[in-house]
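Exercise 7. Given the encoded structure of a 349-residue chain, write a plausible sequence.
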């Protein structure tokens, strides 16, 4: 059977697998598919966390609007362009602008930033700003944005609604938005958290099968990490589940999801995420690269802001400068015996 044809049952079986020898087989299959489909280059995407304002009340995320203890910031256009120049100095071919769902980032304001960024050199530009209107998305696409990251977080509708409540009256339908992004000509990325309280094995297996069905260009996955200023972090039960069915939120489970994602989406760009590096500070990024991933997103956010972009606590790199982050990432790529990708590193088809 071709890897890409793996059925939900088989995916679930791998998620439940505990035998070390069998798991070695999974890692080596994922690594072989990665090498054959996307090669040895690790593409670097410079991440700029442009705002931590957010109108949503997600039960998992520290930026949720109910968190009154967080000092909020929004970067200026000049500050963003400063980071972009630094990215050029580091040789990054892609810039990612990420933030909370912030109406203070207006359509025209960001369109202007995008046009100014274009003048700074050839970059692919990725946005990750949550659920925005189709008008804003069109404006940004026309102003030079190439890609959009929007995780669907979980394909279990009940769990999704419990952890990601809608804002005043508007339905949150991330799958519909992914379709809209595709029609606008964006490269489209999505993904899930691994081990959300209430997430069972079957549901996670279906998430992975959905990655394939959506034919995603990019897939980001990482362990769910509790934040004390959130409903889930305070231990509120949003979804009762049999303890034996609950997916653990540890690095080992996240590696399985990275590996299975590579098997079902051979050509996708898959990052070794910061959440993985947070759950396993010594080996997270490296093992991510060795078990299917081919992308790293070094953090370029200025030191004075990065601690305030606290989607979860003790985020890997949150006490580093952009230079230190860059050096750490290069060392990880060398240790994994891989090379640094040149150019935008778009999905090949
Ligand atoms: N506001 C944007 C970007 C959010 S941050 C959006 O909603 O799309 C990017 C991702 O971080 C989220 O999609 C989520 O999957 C992940 N994330 C948020 N809180 C987290 C937590 N507590 N633990 C692990 N990952 C988390």
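Solution.
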């Amino acid at each position: 059977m071709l890897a890409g044809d793996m059925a939900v049952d088989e995916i679930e079986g791998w998620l439940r697998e505990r035998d070390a020898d069998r798991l070695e087989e999974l890692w080596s299959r994922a690594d072989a598919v990665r090498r054959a489909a996307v090669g040895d280059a690790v593409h670097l995407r410079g991440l700029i966390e442009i705002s931590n304002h957010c109108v949503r009340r997600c039960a998992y995320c520290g930026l949720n609007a109910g968190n009154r203890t967080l000092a909020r910031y929004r970067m200026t256009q000049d500050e963003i362009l400063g980071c972009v120049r630094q990215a050029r100095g580091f040789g990054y071919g892609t810039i990612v602008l990420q933030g909370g769902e912030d109406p203070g980032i207006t359509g025209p304001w960001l369109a202007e930033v995008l046009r100014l960024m274009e003048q700074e050199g050839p970059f692919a530009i990725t946005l990750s700003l949550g659920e925005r209107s189709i008008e804003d998305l069109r404006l940004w696409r026309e102003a030079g944005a190439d890609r959009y990251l929007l995780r669907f977080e979980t394909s279990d509708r009940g769990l999704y609604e419990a952890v990601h409540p809608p804002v005043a009256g508007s339905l949150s339908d991330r799958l519909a938005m992914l379709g809209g992004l595709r029609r606008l000509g964006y490269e489209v990325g999505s993904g899930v958290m691994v081990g959300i309280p209430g997430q069972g094995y079957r549901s996670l297996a279906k998430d992975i099968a959905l990655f394939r069905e959506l034919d995603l260009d990019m897939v980001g996955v990482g362990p769910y990490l509790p934040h004390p200023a959130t409903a889930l972090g305070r231990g509120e039960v949003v979804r009762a589940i049999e303890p034996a069915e609950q997916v653990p939120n540890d690095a080992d489970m996240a590696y399985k999801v990275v590996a299975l994602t590579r098997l079902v989406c051979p050509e996708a760009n898959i990052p070794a995420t910061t959440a993985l590096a947070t759950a396993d500070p010594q080996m997270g990024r490296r093992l991510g690269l060795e078990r299917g991933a081919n992308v790293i997103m070094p953090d370029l956010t200025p030191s004075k802001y990065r601690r305030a972009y606290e989607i979860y606590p003790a985020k890997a790199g949150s006490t580093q400068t952009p230079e230190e982050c860059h050096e750490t990432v290069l060392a990880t790529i060398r240790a994994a015996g891989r090379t640094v990708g040149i150019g935008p590193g778009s999905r090949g088809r």
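Remark. The CA atoms of residues 37 and 266 lie 6 Å apart. Students should compare their own answers with the one above.
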